[in-house]
């Protein structure tokens, strides 16, 4: 950052009212008060970048941790109750990329947050860690087998980021942050075979 400044000079009345540069102050000017013409001594440019350096990666990371990142929603199939022996499918269709523009000490910083890891809490003590948000049937990538019971599943998302300052080159945010999505509760039922008489 370059600052252009002027150097201005003006006389200041002395206690003994002695003239300065041959010009005495008027009787109504108090000691210490300026008087006479303002003289322009010249102009110059000064680089003040060192006085307000661009945000450091660590400073950006502190902002990154406070961003209102989305809490990704978990979906499961089959919808409603599941069945023992039929794998439950998980996925999320929430946004996995978010862009934020923040002001840090007068610098415009653009932060792009991307979901880089997904931890699926199945509710039975198992955590499934993936690098993708999953897909519904028939292209499912995340499944889990359950015993009979009632479970609450949820998703923790790990976010990575990149940032640029005043439109400059993009760099990695030196750290991650996480968000926890709302849980979903469902039952897994045990299907039983029942023999019937077709002639009844």
Quick overview:
The chain has 200 residues and is mainly beta. The protein contains one helix and 13 strands. The chain has two domains: 2-49, no CATH class; 53-189, Sandwich (Immunoglobulin-like), CATH 2.60.40.10.
Written overview of the protein:
Strand 7 and strand 8 form a beta hairpin. Helix content is about 5%, strand content about 45%. It is built from one helix and 13 strands, in the order E-E-H-E-E-E-E-E-E-E-E-E-E-E. The chain folds into two domains: about 50 residues, no CATH class; about 140 residues, Immunoglobulin-like (Sandwich). The mean pLDDT is about 90. The radius of gyration is 35 Å and the shape is rod-shaped. Strands 4, 6, 7, 8, 10, 11, 12 and 13 form an eight-stranded mixed beta sheet that branches. With about 200 residues, the chain is mainly beta.
Number of helices: 1
Mean pLDDT: 89
Low-confidence stretches: none
Q: Please state the overall shape, judged from the principal axes of the Cα atoms.
A: rod-shaped
**Major sheet characteristics:** 8 strands, mixed
What is the fold's blueprint, element by element?
Elements: E1 2-12, E2 34-47, H1 57-64, E3 75-77, E4 82-83, E5 88-91, E6 97-104, E7 107-121, E8 127-130, E9 143-144, E10 149-165, E11 171-172, E12 177-180, E13 184-189
């Amino acid at each position: 950052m370059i600052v252009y400044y002027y150097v201005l000079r003006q006389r200041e009345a002395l206690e003994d009212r002695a003239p300065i540069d041959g010009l005495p102050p008027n009787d109504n000017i108090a000691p210490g008060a300026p008087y006479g013409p303002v003289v322009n001594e010249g102009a110059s440019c000064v680089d003040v970048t060192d006085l307000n350096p661009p945000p450091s990666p660590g400073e950006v990371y502190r902002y990154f941790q406070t961003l209102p990142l989305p809490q990704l929603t978990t979906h499961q199939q089959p919808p409603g109750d599941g069945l023992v022996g039929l794998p439950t499918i998980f996925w999320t269709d929430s946004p996995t990329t978010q862009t934020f523009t923040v002001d840090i000490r007068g610098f415009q910083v653009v932060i792009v947050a991307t979901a880089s890891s997904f931890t699926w809490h199945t509710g039975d003590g198992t955590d499934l860690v993936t690098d993708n948000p999953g897909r519904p049937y028939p292209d499912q990538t995340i499944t889990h087998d359950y015993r009979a019971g009632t479970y609450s599943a949820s998703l923790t998302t790990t976010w990575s980021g990149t940032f640029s300052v005043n439109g400059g080159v993009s760099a990695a945010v030196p750290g991650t942050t996480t968000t926890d999505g709302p849980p979903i509760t469902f039952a897994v039922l045990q299907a039983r075979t029942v023999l019937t008489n077709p002639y009844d």
